[in-house]
Every structure is written in structure tokens, then in C-alpha cells.
């Protein structure tokens, strides 16, 4: 592990030196201009997302409210799944049992038909509740996964922006990326 890191660092340093020597001032300026355009595009995309209602709601609320809502959706989704799953199983079992019990009779009495309809309604309501609870639970899990992905990306973006603001930042970033790619290839290849 340390060996791969040292190799990546050495490659990044040699790329930085080579790019600083081989590229003239106008080429370095062109790389810096391209860097500014990329960051401007990312900022425009972020502003576009802030205009959407769901993202606006998440971004304008405090992190505490968002975390509490996510935890609430997780717990309510699991509890609702259990309760509605119980009623779905109970209603479906009663419906199937009632149908099988009255299978041989030529006709159904109105009371039995109404009872079977009620069992079917209980099963349908339970299934609807299971589906809604499952969606709520999956939404909370999705938001937790998104937070786990977005938080490191935000940290990386902050670091890369600070490096890019430096005079030689784009060339430094490019050399680090080449070194990281070389280190990845070194780690993958035997």
C-alpha cells in the first residue's frame, strides 16, 4: 500500500515537472481557462438543482430536520411494513380460506359473499400499506446512501477547488490525476 502511494507521488511529481517545463505560458493559461469553464458549468448545474422543489426543500431545511425526517421515514417505514404486512397476510389468509371453504357450494349466500369482499378489502388495504411503507423505507435508505456519496464528493470538490485557485493549480491537479491513474493501474496490474 505504501509502495503504491510512493509510486503515485513520484509519478505525480514527475508529471508536474514535465508539464511545467514542456508547456509554454499560453498552453498553461489555456488549461487554466478550461478549468474555469468546467467549474462554472458545475456551479450552473448546482443552481439548476437548487431551483427544483425537492432539492430546494432539502437544501433550505436545516441538516437536523433532514436527518430527523430521514430517521422518521426509516422507522415508520419498517413499523408500517410490519403492521400492514400482518393485515395483508391475515386478510389474504381469510380470503383464501373462505374461498376454499365455500368451493363446493353452487352459490354463495349474500352474507358470505360480503364477508369475502371484506377480506379482500383488508388484503388490498394491507398490500397498499405494505407498498407505501416499502417506498418510504427505500426513500430513507436512498437518502442515506446519497449522503454517504455526496459528503466525500463535497470534500473532494472543496480540496480540488482550492488547488485549482492556485496559479499552477490546474497543472498540479492534472499531474495528481495522472499519478493517481498510474497508481490505480499499478494496484490493478500484478
Overview of the structural elements:
- This protein has 190 residues and is mostly helical.
- It has one domain (2-188).
- Helix content is 89%, strand content 0%.
- The chain has 6 helices and no strands.
- The chain has helices at residues 2-22, 25-51, 53-60, 63-101, 110-164, 169-188.
- Helix 1 packs antiparallel against helix 6, helix 4 (63-101) runs antiparallel to helix 5 (110-164) and helix 5 (110-164) crosses helix 6.
- The radius of gyration is 30 Å and the shape is elongated.
- The relative contact order is 0.15.
- The mean pLDDT is 76.
How is this fold's topology laid out?
Blueprint (H helix, E strand, L loop, with lengths): L1 H21 L2 H27 L1 H8 L2 H39 L8 H55 L4 H20 L2
Helix pairs in contact: 1-6, 4-5, 5-6
